Structures are given as structure tokens and as C-alpha cells.
Amino acid sequence: MPTPPSPPPMPISARAWPRQLSTKFVLIGLSMLLLALLSIGLTMWVTRQLDGGAAAVNEAGRLRMQTWRLVSAWQGGREPAQVQQLVNEVDRTLRLIERGDPQRPLSVPWSQPSRERFGAIEAAWQRLRPTWSVPAASAQDLSSVTAEVDALVGQIDALVRAIESTMARLTALLNLFQFLMMAMAVAAAIISLYVGQLFVIHPLKRLRSALRQVEAGDFSARVEVDSHQEFAELAAGFNHMAQTLQGLYHGLELQVQAKTRDLEAKRARLAALYAVSSLIVEARTLDELARGFARKLREVSGADAVAIRWSDTGTRRYLMLASDCLPEQLIEDEQCLEAGVCACGQPPATARTRVIPIAAAEERSLGGCAQAGYVTLVGVPIRQQQQLLGEINLFYRHEVLLGEDDRGLYDALAGHLANAAENLRAQALLREAAVSEERSLLARELHDSIAQALSFLKIQVGLLRAAVQRNDSAAVPAIIDEIETGVRESTNDVRELLVHFRTRTDGDDIEDALRTTLRKFELQSGLSAHLDVQGHGVPLPSDTQLQVLHVVQEALSNVRKHAQASEVFVDVQRGPHWRFRVRDNGRGFATDADRDQDTHVGLHIMRERAERIGALVAVHSHPGGGTEVSIDVPVQTEASTPNP
Fold first, then answer.
1. Is there a domain that residue 103 lies in?
2. Pair 24, 237: CB distance under 8 Å
3. Which residue range forms the structural domain that includes residue 123?
């Protein structure tokens, strides 16, 4: 369909103003801003004068009060020093009224009457000033002093009236400024509305009308602007755009369809990757992962059947790991394939994503697939860091051609499957290592506590048998007491081990776990335990909290066994570096002397656990002064990484 000729753009009116629209708005805005700033400045000046006048009135009232206090003190026979202090206060108030104080603010709005009244006040005060240095009892005429003071107070009242009169005029002036500002605001609003309507709204209406025509498919719409340069340029740009759109419209629909198909293909690939990623997250075993992956891949690829084969260590054989919609006979026949014998099992040297046409049932490597009715086979190798782990086979009952996007999608999906399988294997190894480590730790704990106690009991039983055989009745009670003590210690050790291995941290804060541990310790030992937590810090990781709790429990066990204490204190200092202290008021010991073997074992266990989280354990003690065990945990990035 030929493109209709576009009409020539409408001419722009020659009645455009000499100045640009932006310049006009800037000039109008600057004018209004200057007027507003001038009005605000005048208003602020008047307001400050009023504030200063109000403060001056207050000071004048205080001057009047100070004068009467001075007269009262002078007539009451006060000490000359007190009278002089009141005189100085009056002097300071007079200077303050005269000079003002910008900090308060305080400033007298001076006028001719106020200055005359203030001058009269100063003159009257200077006449009265020598009077205060003479005691009232020695004064010649108290009535004349009282009259002069009354006159001074009258002058102060006259000054206050003069200031108030000036403030009344300033208030009237402030009201006038406010009225003018309100009138300016109304005028500015009216001018702004008029200018906006004239220079902006009308041209925009024309542009919007033309835009609606273009949206409706009428690309012959053009805009005529008869105002100023900016909108004339905008109209010319719009007209040029409409003309260009009119020329490109006929080929645009085909381009949109092509882009739509491309986006739909990309969306399908992204949906496939998302579905496989969700399956990988939810899968718990390799069999579950493979079966779910085969089902998802068949839906994504449109294949008639899918098989996932896993290779052995040397990639000599391929085992059928999972399949979807594959015939049972084919699954039984190809449960285990040698590499290179069948088209489904590629040797590592030549493994790549390829399309294999199934030509005839007589061909040895493709006979089973042809008998099942498949026409095309697609093989996708599964690799993990250049290591061939297996292969994905897609079976089609029709001919298939793979594009580069399809090859990239299948390779990406195979890579996801390889990573997921490797993650499952790594998780299994981690669980196995964790179980082995816990068993080793349990064995060490039993050897260092229960086994030694049982060895001690075995020795005591031998001594008891020997004493019975030689009829040594005097030694039997002592040996029985030792056996009873050993049994009691073994029972306590067993209980501690049970608490020790049941200890868990259920939250981000270790404080609750410590309180639970101390409550159990109080029930088992009968000692009083106290917890004090100070500071703030980021919570420790769960594995670090667990090891710290075990170290604290071992320290409490040593207190129960050896300290002979009545109280134990656990102090926690939060921060970037956490610090835990376990203190007791027991007998203590000399740190440079030999200690009991049990104490050595306890310290060894504590230091071993601390090293697993990169922490340091220190023991401070002296005879008769108790014992302190401190655990310093480094910053969490270091604390969460065990020392080798």
C-alpha cells in the first residue's frame, strides 16, 4: 500500500515574542522573588524591633522593681555592701537598656520621646546615686529622697509608655507589610495562572490533540504553534516525528512480530531454567533430582522420551540413572552401556551436544531406538569442571534440527544438573564428616571423663578384693568410700555429658542458652550461679555459640569438681570481639605448679574446642583467690572459620 503524501507542516506564527519563554519565566520569577525577599526582610526587621521593644519593656519594669528594692534596703539599714550591690544592679540594667543585647534579642526602638525619657532617668539616677552611700539614719531629709525616687519611677513609667507607643506604630507597619505580602501573593498567583494559560496550556492542548490523533493511527496529524520559540521547536520536532512514523508504520508490524517471537523463545528458555533451578533446590537425593530433571526436560524440549545416564569413575560405562516415557524394554536392554558401543554413551574425548539420525533397525548402535520407533536422538554430555559425569539423551519420533539457542539451553541445563549432583555429594560428605567428628568428640569426652573414672573404680575394686582376702577390715570402709565417691563423680560426669551433647542454641542471642546452662548447673551442683551481660554486638554464628557453650560447661564442670566454691559468675562482654569469663570464689591454685590430671584434661578439652572457632582460652588463678577462665572470640568472620 503506497504511503499517502504528508501535508506540509503548518507555519509558525510570526507573532513570537523576541525573548524565549524560559527567559520570560526567569525574569518574572526573579522579580517576584526580589519583592518577596524585600517584604520578608522588612517584616523580619519590624518583628525584631518588636521583640527588642518587648524585652526593653520587661527590663524597664525590672529597673522599677530594682529601684524600690534599693530604697527598701537603704531605709532598712542593710549593710553598705548589700546596698552597693543593688546600686550596681541598677547601673547594669540602665546600660543594658541603653546598649541592648542582640542575643536575647533586646533593643529599644528609640524615638525622640523615648530618648528624652531615658535621659531624664539617667539624670535623676545620677542625682540619687550619692544618697545611697549615706546610711538612712544619717540622711537629712528622707521625704525628699522618697520624692526623688517617686519621680524616678515616674520617668521609668514614661519611658515604658514611649516604647509602647513606638511598638504600636511598628505593629501597624507590620500589619501593612503583611497586607502587602498577601496582595502580592494573590497578584503573583493570578499572573502565574495567566502566563501559564497563555504560553503553556494552550500550546500543550494543541500538542495533546495531535498526540491523540497519532495514538489513533492518524499519522498525518500536524501541530501549529503561534506563540514562542520553545513550543515552535517542539511542534517542528513533533511534525518530523509524525512524518517519520508515517513512513515506518507499514514495516513496523513485521518487526514487532519478529521481536515477539524472539522474546517468547527467550521467555521459554528462562522459564525452563527457572523450573530446573526450583527442582534443584527442592531435590534431596540424586534419584529424586534425576527423575524430576528428566520430566522437566521432556516438557521443555518437546521430546518423546528422555534418559539420564551416569558414568562410572573411568567413564567406561554408562548406567541408567533415570528416564521419562522411555519403553520398559529399552530401559532393561540399556541399563548399562559401554562407552562408544552405543550412540547413547559417548567417550570423553568426543563428547559433545549432537543430533544423531536413526536410519535403520539393523544398525548395531541404534537398533534398539529404531525398534522403539524413534527417528532422531539428541545427546547432551553432563560436565563438571571439564570432567564428564554422564549424558542426557532426548528421543524424538520425528526429525529434529538444533539451533545455537537450543544447544546453549541444553548445555546450561546439563551444567545445572551436574552442579546439583555435585552439591548433593558434597552435602553427603559434610554430613558424614560431621557425624564422624561428633563420634570422635564423644569418644574423647568419654575417654577423658568416664573411662578414667572407671579405671579408678577398677583399681579400688582390686584393693577392696585384696583387703577382703587378707581380712583387713580397717581398710574396707575407706576403700568403699573411695568407690562411692568415684561412682558419684561418674554419675555427675554422665549427667554433664548428657547436658553437654543436648546443648543447642535456638536463636541469635547466646544469653538464653547461658541462662539455661546455669540453671542446670545450679540444680546439679547446688552452687549459686550469676550471669552478667554487657555491651552490644552482632550475634555470634550458631556453630561458634555452640562451641562457646561447651567451653563454658567444661569450665563449670571444673568448678564443681575442684574449686570448692560457693558461687560462680559468668560475665559476657558483647562487641566486635566477644569475651566470656567464668569466675568462682573457690580455693584456686598456683598456675606454675602441677595440677590434677582431671584439671589438665578439662583445660585441654576447653582449648581444643576454642581452637575450632579460632578463640583463645586463658586461665588465671592463685591459691585462696578463686579461678577465672576467659574465652576471647575474634570477629565473626574469623570466628566462623575453624583453625586448621
1. yes
2. no
3. 21-201
